[in-house]
């Protein structure tokens, strides 16, 4: 009988310990307004709950001690430790942090779920896991519809990204709302932003036209980067990375924290070096970031400067098919100093003012200075190609320079209530650039030639003015509308000669109207449906003018999407139809410095389906898959083949895979240890718009790569607050793949009079087989 009583006692005790209790409550701000979407984290269970549209939450827990942490963008995080022995009601009141004012920095170009625009966000915490020296395009590789690549094959140096088949010249990039794309080429040179992820708070990728932006209009996507937020507490970090191909990264960061509750000074110094997967495709990147901030309850003033220098050995001509078969790591360019040597510094001043509970303003000023050259050796050069500065057949070394200045002034004002969010603003930019080439050595210079004589020169100016008004407002309790109107005026002028000594005399004026309209329907607190229509117009870039293209292009973008959130799965699904007129598609060719050449394709379109999700299998396992299926076509495409123009009908748009799939499988057994398995599949691509009508050399085959990422955060009590260990193994299956290339055709005269035959050639950029990076970050 005693034994029975003993076992009954154990059973009752176990049942009492296993009893669950109801935990409920709400999250509001200081003005008692509910914070819909606030995150309640239960630390001990590695569980997160989202507050509903009334700011309320609920869950069930067993008996025990639990730490509840509540966070919401723009507010200070609050935590409570509670002993749960009965049903508990918890109310959290969050106070505004400086981050809320900082969000005004980018409110003119960013969106939230209330806006009918297709977008994805990636936070500093997510970036930190794989931030081991590779550039931002590589870190974004697993986002929907993104394909990234690098010249050197290892993700350091010259890197690139495509979104929905649109290359970097069609992706509008802003840093704190300031345009980053080069005003003339429209390109984004990530090589000049070495280790910038270490100074990035958050990145938002808008796919399609997106919202009105500063600078050139987005034709494939917008990438909005918000730099580091103000730190309330002082900290320091020392980070070091080592890996394959002699890759290494050294970073030092600091912040003073709030001094007298108002002033913070923070900064970073970085050096990244890599030999590259391709032989002698080295990169040496030195960069810095410094910010000084002043905040009070209603004011944020930020002075920011960042920049640095890069020295990158030439690898942008890739390899021929034969060279790829012989040795995919070879680099056929043997001149010791065939390098790109460039420096770029940015200076930004931001002043945000909260005038009332509903009104706020933002003024931003920017100055960017860039200067540098590409050095090249030419054997047995033609004297006419160098303005007759050398004897015909002389060997020569030249430097091709770019020296530019870029000024920007942005202003916007924001009126926001519970039912309406109105932003109106203007952006003005002025760009001046000098392009010139110098002869720095020759074995047979003509008598009157001096070292550093210029053999070509052109200067350029570009003035860009845009004004916009956009508003989101509630029509009913469930239906909201969005309108965005932008007027953009562009004046571009250049005169002189190109590096080929061809005249480039342009005096162009454009006046664009870019309207956007959409609706969001809230089926319930967790399900939203949205639809939008947007128009974008874009001017040609400098390379287009050199190729004889003077016509602007127009895009009509239709989007239909569904956003759903639950405790188990968050899912975003959208269908898009992007209809182009005079789209400037990549021909597949590149110019003398590896820049892509474009041509007008007439009418074309992109039709696609994108799905991305975050599935919480349990408290330790989550899966983040995304799938992009698309059809990208030129209508009635015509091209010159074998001496005559031929109608090829509908053809695939170059560099636009129909299938892109990404996935991150994450296992997190504890708060401090995490392992992720990364996968990426990219379908077949054409490198031209001819679809193998000349030969099959214009095809890039499908590929799939897998990677492994692990992080462990060791919490210490002496010297350091914590030590973060990171490991990243890329291409773990050691696949020999090519993700980017170029393709060109040329005419060869037949023996018959007036007859020609079209021949072709191609180049390929091999990416690294299995490689690794390991890093350790000391935080104090």
Whole-number tally of structural domains = 3
Count of separate DSSP helical elements: 6
Q: Classify the secondary structure makeup into a structural class.
A: mainly beta
CA distance, first residue to last residue: 61 Å
> What kind of sheet is the major sheet?
22 strands, antiparallel, barrel
CATH architecture of the largest domain: Beta Barrel
Q: For the record, what CATH class of the largest domain applies?
A: Mainly Beta
Strands, count:
43
- Strand content bin: over 45%
Poorly predicted sequence stretches spanning 5 or more consecutive residues: 1-17
What form results from the Cα inertia axes?
A: globular
* Quaternary organisation: single chain
In round numbers, the mean pLDDT is 90
CATH superfamily of the largest domain: TonB-dependent receptor, beta-barrel domain
Cα Rg: 28 Å
The share of residues in helices is under 10%
CATH fold name of the largest domain: Maltoporin, Chain A
In short, what is this structure?
Helices cover about 5% and strands about 60% of the residues.
């Amino acid at each position: 009988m005693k034994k029975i009583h003993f076992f009954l006692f154990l059973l009752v005790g176990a049942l009492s310990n296993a009893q669950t209790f109801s935990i409920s409550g709400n999250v509001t701000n200081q003005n008692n307004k509910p914070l819909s979407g606030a995150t309640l984290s239960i630390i001990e269970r590695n569980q997160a709950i989202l507050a509903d549209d009334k700011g309320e939450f609920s869950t069930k827990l067993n008996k025990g001690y639990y730490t509840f942490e509540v966070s919401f963008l723009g507010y200070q995080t609050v935590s409570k430790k509670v002993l749960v022995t009965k049903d508990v009601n918890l109310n959290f009141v969050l106070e505004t942090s400086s981050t809320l004012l900082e969000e005004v920095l980018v409110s003119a170009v960013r969106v939230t779920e209330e806006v009918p625009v297709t977008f994805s966000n990636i936070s500093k915490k997510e970036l930190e896991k794989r931030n081991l020296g590779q550039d931002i395009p590589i870190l974004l590789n697993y986002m929907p519809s993104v394909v990234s690549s690098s010249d050197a094959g290892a993700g350091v140096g010259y890197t690139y990204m495509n979104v929905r088949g649109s290359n970097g010249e069609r992706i509008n990039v802003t840093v704190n709302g300031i345009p980053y794309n080069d005003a003339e080429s429209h390109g984004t040179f990530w090589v000049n932003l070495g280790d910038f992820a270490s100074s990035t708070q958050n990145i938002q990728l808008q796919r399609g036209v997106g919202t009105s932006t500063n600078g050139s209009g987005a034709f494939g996507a917008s990438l909005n980067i918000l730099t580091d937020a103000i730190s309330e507490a002082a900290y320091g970090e020392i980070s070091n990375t080592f890996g394959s191909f002699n890759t290494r990264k050294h970073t030092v960061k600091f912040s003073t924290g709030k001094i007298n509750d108002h002033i913070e000074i923070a900064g970073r110094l970085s050096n990244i070096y890599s030999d590259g997967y391709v032989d002698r495709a080295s990169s040496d990147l030195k960069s810095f970031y410094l910010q000084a901030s002043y905040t009070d309850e209603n004011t944020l003033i930020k002075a920011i400067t960042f920049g640095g220098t890069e020295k990158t050995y030439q690898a942008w001509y890739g390899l021929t098919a034969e060279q790829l078969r012989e040795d995919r790591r070879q680099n056929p360019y043997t001149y010791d100093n065939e390098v790109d040597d460039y420096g770029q510094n940015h200076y930004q001043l931001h002043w945000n003012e909260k005038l009332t509970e509903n009104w706020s303003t933002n003024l931003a000023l920017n100055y960017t200075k860039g200067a540098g050259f590409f050095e090249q050796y030419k054997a047995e050069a033609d004297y006419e190609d160098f303005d007759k500065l050398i004897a015909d057949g002389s060997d020569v070394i030249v430097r091709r320079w770019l020296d530019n200045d870029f000024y920007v002034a942005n202003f916007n004002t924001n009126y926001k209530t519970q039912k309406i969010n109105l932003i109106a603003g203007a952006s003005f930019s002025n760009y001046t650039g000098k392009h010139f080439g110098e002869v720095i050595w020759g074995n047979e210079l003509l008598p009157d030639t001096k070292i550093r004589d210029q053999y070509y020169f052109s200067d350029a100016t570009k003035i860009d003015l845009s004004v916009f008004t956009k508003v989101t407002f509630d029509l009913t309790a469930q239906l909201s509308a969005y309108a965005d109107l932008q007027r953009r005026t562009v004046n571009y002028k250049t005169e002189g000669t190109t590096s080929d000594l061809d005249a480039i005399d342009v005096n162009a004026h454009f006046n664009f109207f870019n309207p956007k309209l959409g609706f969001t329907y809230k089926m319930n607190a967790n399900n939203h449906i949205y639809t939008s229509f947007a128009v974008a117009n874009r001017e040609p870039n400098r390379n287009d003018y050199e190729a004889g293209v003077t016509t602007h292009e127009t895009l009509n973008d239709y989007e239909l999407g569904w956003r759903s959130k639950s405790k188990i799965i968050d899912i975003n699904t959208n269908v898009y139809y992007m209809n182009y007129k005079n789209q400037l598609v990549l021909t597949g060719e590149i110019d003398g410095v590896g820049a892509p050449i474009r041509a007008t394709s007439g009418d074309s379109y992109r039709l696609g389906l994108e799905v991305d999700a975050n599935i919480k299998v349990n408290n330790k396992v989550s899966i983040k898959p995304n799938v992009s299926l698309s059809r990208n076509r030129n209508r009635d495409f015509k091209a010159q083949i074998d001496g005559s123009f031929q109608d090829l009908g509908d053809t695939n748009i170059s560099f636009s895979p129909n299938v892109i799939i990404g996935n991150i499988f994450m296992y997190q057994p504890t708060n401090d240890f995490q392992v992720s398995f990364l996968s990426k599949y990219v379908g077949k691509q054409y490198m031209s718009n001819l679809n193998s009508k000349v030969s099959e050399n214009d095809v890039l085959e499908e590929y799939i790569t897998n990677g492994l990422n692990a992080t462990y955060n060791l919490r210490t009590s002496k010297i350091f607050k914590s030590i973060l260990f990171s490991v990243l193994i890329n291409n773990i299956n050691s696949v020999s793949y090519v993700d980017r290339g170029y393709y060109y055709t040329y005419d060869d005269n037949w023996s018959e009079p007036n007859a020609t035959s079209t021949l072709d050639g191609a180049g390929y950029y091999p990416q690294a087989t299995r490689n690794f990076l390991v890093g350790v970050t000391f935080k104090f």
